[in-house]
Amino acid sequence: MKSKQRGKTLAFSIVFLVAGFLLSFSYSITKDELENGEVSSSSGSRYGAQEERLRKELLDKQQENIALQDRLYEQQDIVREYEKSMSSEEQAFFNLAEDAENYRMFLGKIAVEGPGLSVQLEDGKYDPASGNVNDYIVHEHHVFNVMNELFIAGASAISINGQRIKHNSYIVCTGPVIMVDGVQYPAPFTITAIGDSDVLAAALNLTGGVRDQLVNDHIVFTLEKIPNIKMNPVIADS
Amino acid sequence: MWIPILALLVGIALGLFTDLSVPEQYANYLSIVVLAALDTLFGGIRAHLQGVYDDRVFISGFFFNIALAASLAFLGVHLGVDLYLAAIFAFGVRLFQNIAVIRRILLVKWSEKKKSINI
């Protein structure tokens, strides 16, 4: 009976110990939660916790977004820097490309199209009574004169009888015909030039200029302004 | 008889001064366990007053109810069903019933005592 009583007391002790522990423990935890400002009633604590977690996550994400945005701005600045340097480089490239285009035009490597004029040189009417036949035909120096005058006046491209003149073209007089880069052409010669036709015409028509000299040499000189001339490139490499 | 009371005080002190922190998701378990413990305690008092008290029933009921409530809440969390509400409801209703019975018994006893004194 005595041992039974003692066992009972022990069991009661354990029960009360556990009960007291549970009560005070839960009380202290609830107090902590309230002190931490966590708005979570005992029944809705699960949802409160979830809400808390989600809110924390949201804050984290926002923080992250701000950091990323800062990085984005930095990167954009770098890109802008690149673009600035690139645009100046592009300007340089553009200038170079333009220069290359001009040089190609002078070399006869590309087709040229534009307004210009054509000059036709015809042999003069030969009068057997009045001296040498050579005085009445077109010589290569006449062609040279016209060409040089046109180039000096600012012609972009010149062709003789459709043959494009390039930087190292040669013109040789071979008897009654002249040879342009190895191709023979008989009179009349048509010299076509692309450029400001008014300027070119004025340059040829100067008093005492090319036209007067040609006319003096009994050459029939015809000048015609053409609104649009197209010249093909010289394909053969030289 | 004062040893269990001492044990109660020791338990309260332990609970107050332990720095254990329960993760948020286990707060439900704790509340249910507390409710189960309270229910069993009041049930024991009632049984004692009604004269049907049994040690084994009381002690086994105490621990078994706690374990059952905790496992029910655990199951509810993992099934996505708020089963801990069922435990809270059951224990709460029983708690109130037990307290009501205790009150009535005490009232009857008190009035009988008064009557006997008057007579």
UniProtKB/TrEMBL annotation, chain B:
Subcellular location: Cell membrane
GO cellular component, one term: plasma membrane
InterPro entries the record matches: DUF1290
Residue ranges crossing the lipid bilayer per the database entry: 25-45, 57-77, 83-106
Membrane topology: Multi-pass membrane protein
Main location per the UniProt record: membrane
Keyword annotations of the record: Cell membrane, Membrane, Transmembrane, Transmembrane helix
Domain of life: Bacteria
Pfam families in the record: DUF1290 (PF06947)
Family membership noted in the UniProt record: Belongs to the sbp family.
Protein name: Small basic protein
